[in-house]
Design brief:
alpha/beta; 17% strand; five-stranded mixed beta sheet; 38% helix
Length: 377
Amino acid sequence: MARSIFIWGGIAVVLLGLGGFGAWLFTLPASIDSAVAPPVPHEEFENVLAALRHEGEERPLIAVIGINDATETTDYLLPTGILRRADIADVVMLATGEGPVQLYPALRVEPDATIAAFDAEHPDGADYVIVPAMSRDDDPAVLAWLREQSGKGARIIGVCAGAKVVGAAGLLDGRRATTHWYYLGALLKRSPSIDYVADRRFVADDGVVTTTGVSASMPMMLTLIEAIAGRPKAEAVARDIGVETWDMRHASHAFRLTRPFAMTVLANSASFWSHDTRGIELQAGMDEAALALVADVWSRTYRSNTVTLAPSQSAVTTVNGVRVLPDRTDRDWPENRLRILPGQRPADALDQALRTVTARYGAPTTNVVAMQLEYPQ
């Protein structure tokens, strides 16, 4: 799936028709590295934990919903991988229809079930529903299903631009919320009664949680693990995935359109003769979160895209049971390969991928990727 389905495909068109906005755009500061996130009162984080805490003695059920033709890669796979690693809940990857889920900007996976099959097996609904970004915010099956799950008592977690999907379902009306910086205007236009909260990695209000950009799925899932199973369990999982600390702090003002960002996107897009296609080797037992992050990074440079490689066209099962369908056989791909090291922690894989992008294309391109992921390097 082309990366233009997500945020950035229309940016060149926007820049060509800026009008008065152009003068403002080209005077903005560029740095996200030096941005300081303001403090968040500890009781606010405690309130989020209380809102997410699981009631009852039964093991919670978590559903991750996607549409078959275009669901964001990291939003779909990181929550699944991190929560299954924690082993504190039953985690089910769902799709609206039969067949694989094409993720964007890269990867294709087999879901565990359709929403119809899930409903038949679990008539009382899920305890938590995780909503990734999708290419369409108004898929009727998704919106109806989210309203039904919320009505049955599920806590709804909109990851990144998944907040737009949650908003389209009417579940953010009158609530406090946040989302990916690029989509904030569209979210508020559709749901003007939302009380937008800046400088928060995630916001909870009355059974609905929303997060900022793609990379927010890591602190969000650690917070959910802490709410379900306690701080020590969350700390253990954090060490496993390479995260030292997590909380609600976020420097929202650092993530916005800037002149360096826009010029890098345009320059990289124009350099079509030097674009790369990187082959990511799939291996049984590999970490699906690391895979998702590496694929996401290399597919957002505007200089490269990724395909997955395996000895055959059969699905390759990751360490936490995600079945990834290869794009090509590895014998057809002699060079430009990306290898994810066995045991490499997801956060380390993300940072390594960004360092490699810097070495290949330069720091401005890395900043473009980090801005899209809303990742405070």
